[in-house]
Design brief:
mainly beta; 9-stranded mixed β-sheet; 4-stranded antiparallel β-sheet; 3 helices
Length: about 280
Amino acid sequence: MTITVRELTYYPVKGCAGTVVASAQVLGTGLEHDRTFMVVDAADGAFRSQRTHASMAAIRVEVLEAGAALDLSAEGVEPLRLKVDRDGPRREVSMFDRPLGAAADQGDEVAEWFSEVLGAESRLVRVAPGFDRDGWGDTPGKVNFADAHAVLVASTASLDDLNARIAARGDAEPVPMDRFRPNIVLTGNDEPHFEDRVRRMTLGSVELAYSVRAMRCNVPLVDQRTGRRAGPEPVRTLATYRREPEYKNKVSFGAKNAVVCEGMVTVGDTVEVAEWLGR
């Protein structure tokens, strides 16, 4: 059994479309450029996400000039090229009603662009110099604007098992992996959800350590290509076998990890598991 890296994806703007890459630099806060930017409510700085703005999934973001610029595009509006201000005016922001401190506001033009696309007054902010945020779990690690952890890992075995269960119901189509917005997809082990039991692993020159299972909200109901709600799958079927009583009976899919050794990872890299739960 050889586990390898199947896919790598980073999400430059939290909640917006991801960028699939063949290789990635992995920093202490996750894949380079991952969740470096966040859309927030213009009035109170609270983050916006697909939970309430499903159309965010269809906003395409391209990182240019090593992060110095972004190309933004969405249906029905003119594309925008943003010159990134890494040290812009500070704006207090929050996530899940918890203050995150001050982020760097990216200006009025891009704020107006996101406000038009989402139909709600919004601002775009970037992680500011000196930003320092802890995760939580078995290995907390550090994190940018992801929900709470640096790297989300899922496996093809987990998705195949889920889709087999959906097919057995006979009334829904299989779902693609992008519904779960993972950073790293693993393949080569046929055991569904084996990623839950991996406590330490090396991929390329990167070492990850397990933090917690990934609890799922309503985002997996959103078609990531169209930005439209397409449920009830996969949450309906996950609820039949992946409820987590210790987390208020939420369903889980994937495992969240902290970065304990920075480096490079490439699609096709062999994954060396240094520690398994229960072994």
